[in-house]
Amino acid sequence: MTISVGHLYPEYLNIYADRGNIAVLTRRAALRGHELVVQPIGIGEQLRPGAHDLLYIGGGQDREQSLIAPDLADKSSAIRHAVAEGAALLAVCGGYQLLGRGYRGRDGSFMPGAGLFGHETVAGTTRMIGDVLLECELEPGASRQLAGFENHAGRTVLDRDAEPLGRVVYGFGNDGASGFEGTRLGRALGTYLHGPLLPRNPWLADWLLAQALAHAGGGEPPILDPLSDELEAQAFRVAAGRARDRGGRR
Amino acid sequence: MPRRRRTKLLEYLLVRVAPTQAGAERCELSFVDAKLSSLPRARSCHPARSLERSDHSASCLEQPYTPTPLPSSPMTVRLGLETIAARAVGAVSRAAGRGGGTTLPGKLLWKIDPGAVDALAARLPSGVALVSATNGKTTTTAMSAKVLGEKHRLAWNRAGANLLSGVASALVTGRGADLGLFEVDEGALPEAIRRTRPRVVSLGNLFRDQLDRYGELELVAERWRSAVDLLPTSTTLVVNVDDPILAKLAEGREAALRFGLDDPRHARPTLQHAADSKYCVRCGHPYEYAAAYVGHLGDYRCPACGHERPPLDVAARDIELVGLTGSRFRLDTPLGSTVVELSLPGLYNVYNAVAAASLATALGTSPAATARGLADFSAAFGRFERIPAGAKTIVVLLIKNPAAANEALRTLETGVPPVLVIALNDAIADGRDISWIWDVDFEPLLPHVGRVVATGDRAAELGLRLVYGGLSEDQLEVIPALEQALDRGLGLVDAGTELVILPTYTAMLALRGVLTERGYVRPYWDGTT
User: Is A136 a catalytic residue?
Assistant: First the structure.
């Protein structure tokens, strides 16, 4: 099956090796006989309704983020619509912040976001930098771990009814205080974790692919054939160890 | 150091030392803190150091300069004791074979009295030159040392210890030096400027690098901007204007030498994936490049607002790259032109050479002397360094961020070695965040390489990167232990050939440690000027 991916602003939001995440999705789809077609969507380009099974938005430096912000506002209803219709989505770091209600600067200014996720981000005085380990339960009863790296000054506070992506085992997470990291809304995930996230957390890549396949073909997300993932497991172990030894410290 | 103690020390310097040294006419201490004073300091010897005056500066440097003996004020005694103690520590550290002691004396001095850096730097009769950049600062500084070493006795932080403590060490150990030549970490540049009050500041480039450590590019640029704004007009800014952010830093500055490359035949067809400053520094519109040489460095113009690369004062033209062995180019400077032969490969080393040549020009060195020094230069510590290891040769190319790694790989494209050892560590000096390896363009190289040994603390992650980049899993060996990987690599290449190793910074140090133990290289603190 063909999986259509819309990669938002790859020219601007690519700071933490977001192309690594795309490469992982592409290869893991191909190994199961599916073709991932990635369409870059830049400033001024339209997001056609229903055209994508998976949307991806990465992180950028402040300057790049402010350059795309006005355009993202124009696309916000199309993004919300796509997720409501069952498209999968992964937003990392800056992209995660931008898809919330907005970002409050230290000077009191407020930059509105796309309003997909139920959270607001407030600028902090120190950056939260380090390795992270999360405990997630995307499917009831199936607890899995994610290892990544975070580097953000913003404190993201989830709405009372918003669901986090996971619980922080080691690291700072959304705001360094709540013990939560990221958010989940149906098939849409937002997270501060880069590294990039998917190479060493292949189960999450497969979860996203399954959701995207469900959108593409209708019905339930399929169960994908397992892959050997030996190197992936080794990389995960080292990263998880790093989070245990030195995550969540300034 | 606690603020109160520092303030006291400053008072002490001002009250006790300034009056006694007023007669020396060169050790003004009104500078002690840039916040206290952004006034240009009046050096009797160098009324102006703009380029127009470079002939004057040069002749001035030739004057037999006898530093006025420092009066034996309590401060001098103290500084003397401190430096003696610090030197002793360095000697003990080296004798004990511990890491070379390149920063230990400086760390000690830096800890007991940071103001000593200011005082020691101010004693250098020919002043101080600082070199900073994301990439190439060690090589640029080493090249500059080769050129300037002909006329000057240098205090130089040769082993790349580029924080203030490293500068302090070089000042302590550089007895009898007349000129300070210091490579400075991007983050440490503002303080280094404040403390050493340089005659020349060379800014090479800004690339994204270790975001966990330095923060975003803009942040570093902003700090540099504030530091540069405080420079007196007598300081010459040597700046690579092929980098739009740096060109903007030098805008409107008279005492500046603007350098760059000018040979579109060597331009890349497109900007690389990891290109950083793609958007106009004035209006945010994407630049159009008449030529993009390395990353975002090149001849750019904004089609929206017209911001473009300024005219070059120093340029490399008619560049010929000679594979893995070197390059040749014409160097145009305001003091004349010459042909430079470099025994280092790659366009990025042409940038380093032009940076060094510009710095030397700012200090009044003739093009001929510059070309002589550059021709003599082989390689800086771990930067395309060739180390004989029995019947084989090890070639070490440091990789530390996407731009530097891309250029190292691009150099290899002319003759892809059959075996590569790549070492990825994630200590603080490497960057704890290893996501940058995904921004490196390994793809063009991988179809041509026979076997890759991935090593270092994050070997598995590196292996994944290569597999997703198109390397088949049976061509990959993941051996986290560095020494074991080195032996495996040496075992895979034939006698009489080269083994290419691409390590990150701490992996490079560890590798040198192994090679030193085996007697292939001398300890790095053993070098001579």
Answer: no
pLDDT exceeds cutoff 80 at A156:
yes
Q: Are residues B82 and B127 in the same domain?
A: yes
Distance set, CA A148 to CA A49, A155, B140, B250, B422 (Å): 32, 18, 36, 39, 22
Set A7, A52, A152, A194: catalytic member:
A194
Residues in A lying within 8 Å of B, measured between beta carbons: 11, 14-17, 19-20, 23-24, 27, 61-64, 67, 127, 129-131, 149, 151, 194-196, 199-200, 231-232, 234-235, 238-239, 242, 246
How far from B488 is each of B153, B455, B466, B472, B484, CA to CA, in Å?
Answer: 43, 11, 18, 19, 6
Both B297 and B351 in a single domain?
yes
Q: List CB contacts (< 8 A) between B436 and chain A.
A: 17
pLDDT at B213: 61
Residue B365 tokens, joined:
């060195």
Q: Which of A93, A119, A152, A215 is catalytic?
A: A93
Instruction: Tell me the residue ranges of DSSP E strands in B364-496.
Output: 383-389, 392-397, 419-423, 451-455, 476-478
Vertex A60 angle, CA A56 and A63, to 5°: 140
Peptide bond into A196 cis (omega under 30): yes
Residues of B in contact with A62 (CB under 8 A): 216, 218
Q: Report ipTM (2 d.p.).
A: 0.94
* pTM assigned to the model: 0.71
d(CA A149, CA A131): 4
How many whole angstroms separate alpha carbon A38 and alpha carbon B196?
A: 52
Q: What is the pLDDT of residue B214?
A: 61
* B275-279, B302-306, B339-343, B449-453: segment of lowest average pLDDT: B275-279
- Tell me which fold the domain A2-246 belongs to: Rossmann fold (3.40.50)
Whether residue B408 sits in one domain with residue B261: no
Q: Which of A23, A129, A195 sits opposite B435 (nearest CB)?
A: A195
- B50 touches B254 (CB < 8 A): yes
Provide the chain B residues 203-242 that lie in CB contact (below 8 A) with chain A.
Answer: 208, 211-212, 215-218
* Confidence check: pLDDT of B396 > 60: yes
**B299: part of which helix (H) or strand (E)?**
strand B297-301
Kindly tell me if the per-residue pLDDT of B308 is higher than 90. yes
Task: Please report, for chain A, the start and end positions of each structural domain, with discontinuous segments joined by +.
Answer: 2-246
CA distance A217 to A221: 9
What is the sign, positive or negative, of the torsion defined by CA atoms of B164, B167, B172, B178?
A: negative
Computed over every residue of chain B, the mean pLDDT equals: 79
Could you tell me the residue range of the domain that residue B465 belongs to?
A: 383-522
Chain A residues touching B432 at Cβ < 8 A: 129-131, 149, 242, 246
Residue B426 maps to a domain:
yes
Query: Could you give the number of structural domains in chain B?
Result: 2
pLDDT at B492 over 80: yes
Give me the mean pLDDT over the B203-221 stretch: 78
Phi, psi of B93 (to 5 degrees): -60, -40
- Phi-psi sector, B298: left (phi>0), alpha (psi -120 to 50), beta: left
The CA distance from A160 to the nearest CA of chain B, in Å, is 31
Query: Angle at CA A101, nearest 5°, toward A100 and A104?
Result: 105
| CATH number of the domain within which B485 lies | 3.90.190.20
